[in-house]
UniProtKB/TrEMBL annotation:
Keyword Lyase set for record: no
Name of this protein: Epoxyqueuosine reductase
Pfam short name (any one): QueG_DUF1730
Organism: Tahibacter amnicola
Domain of life: Bacteria
Upper classification of the organism: Bacteria, Pseudomonadati, Pseudomonadota, Gammaproteobacteria, Lysobacterales
Enzymatic reactions: epoxyqueuosine(34) in tRNA + AH2 = queuosine(34) in tRNA + A + H2O
Subunit: Monomer.
Length: 349
């Protein structure tokens, strides 16, 4: 099988394994490396020190995986059909908003398993070859690689957008030493639209294609380990894990398609559960109910921290006040601080 035939077959196998699109890119990322280094120099990565720790491995694939000359980039849709609509949940201060990607099973293992199966099929055809699969698991410029592989363009909110499928999808990569033909890179189609910039609750998109993670609600609720800066708490609203506003407002998502992956279906009604019910979870319940979920990574303490802020922003009810007071003497100083802030909001009101 020649390289062109193999590339075509890889895309066919990828579709059979549940990927909505497969593309192939080279390893040249010089321009993207420059943007990355400028972003790091500006300190916009916040406490994500691992972004600096890996040096140029992120933008030079062969340094991360020696011998790499091509990247097979894949995408997989993740929005389940029939879930509570994002705007409806955000408009109800009593309910908790969880980023749509985290409603079901953690995508890392699922996609990595599919990529391994893809590698096995390639190996069965060509014999042993050099490869390594990645799904958000190593220093990889996945969006730039996906753009170069023709899967979409990087929008002004820095998410990847596909003109036929919007942006509600995960990305994964197979670094390989196979001399496959590369696909044509995608071109940008945001035009003059600035909806994502205008709607960002904390104005984290400081300029087109530039996000200051320190202001981003996804960073504040997931990556940040310490207290959430007071200046951003009101703007968080009822978002307890991540934020999707920039994607919800994007006009290209009218073309998004619901996933057929049952593992991405919401668990424990997380597409619109009440804040009080989630705040009432014990640590044992949290660990049991987030098993196999991306949410598990923030831990119980930050889970309560985030929900306390959302409860402080909710319309006041006796039930909310009672729930907060029940945690006022929590063993964690971090939780106590945010509960005290939330109670103060209701007392002031």
């Amino acid at each position: 099988m020649n390289p062109e035939q193999l590339a075509s077959q890889i895309k066919h196998w990828g579709a059979e394994l549940g990927f909505q699109q497969v593309g192939i890119a080279g390893t040249e990322l010089a321009t993207d490396e420059s943007h990355l280094l400028n972003w790091l120099d500006a300190g916009r990565h916040g406490e994500m020190e691992y972004m600096q720790r890996h040096g140029t491995k992120r933008s030079r694939p062969a340094e991360l995986q020696p011998g790499t000359i091509r990247i097979v980039s894949v995408r997989m849709d993740y929005i389940p059909e029939g879930i509570a609509h994002g705007w409806d949940v955000l408009g109800d201060s009593q309910r908790a908003y969880v980023s749509r990607y985290a409603l079901g099973r953690d995508y890392h293992k699922l996609m990595r398993s599919r990529l391994q199966k893809l590698a096995d099929r390639i190996s069965a055809e060509v014999g042993d070859f050099g490869y390594r699969a990645f799904v958000d698991s190593a220093p990889v410029l996945e969006r730039a690689l996906a753009r170069n592989a023709g899967l979409g363009w990087i929008g002004k909110h820095t998410c990847l957008i596909n003109h036929q499928a919007g942006s509600w999808f995960f990305l994964g990569e197979l670094y390989t030493d196979l001399p496959l033909p590369v696909d044509e890179a995608a071109t940008a189609h945001c035009g003059t639209c600035t909806r994502c910039i205008d709607i960002c609750p904390t104005q984290a998109i400081v300029a087109p294609y530039q996000v200051d993670a320190r202001r981003c609600i996804s960073y504040l609720t997931i990556e940040l380990h310490d207290s959430i800066p007071v200046e951003f708490r009101k703007a968080m609203g009822n978002r307890i894990y991540g934020c999707d506003d920039c994607q919800l407002i994007c006009p290209w998502n009218k073309f998004s398609r619901p996933t057929e992956e049952p593992d991405f279906a919401p668990r424990h009604s997380l597409d619109g559960a009440t804040l009080v019910s989630l705040f009432g979870w014990t640590e044992a319940q949290f660990l049991q109910r987030t098993e196999g979920s991306a949410i598990r990574r923030i831990g119980y303490e930050r889970w309560l921290r985030n929900i306390a802020v959302a409860l402080g922003n909710a319309a006041g009810t006796a039930e909310i006040t009672e729930a907060l007071r029940a945690r006022a003497d929590h063993a964690s100083a971090l939780v106590r601080e945010h509960v005290a802030w939330a109670l103060a909001q209701h007392e002031a009101a």
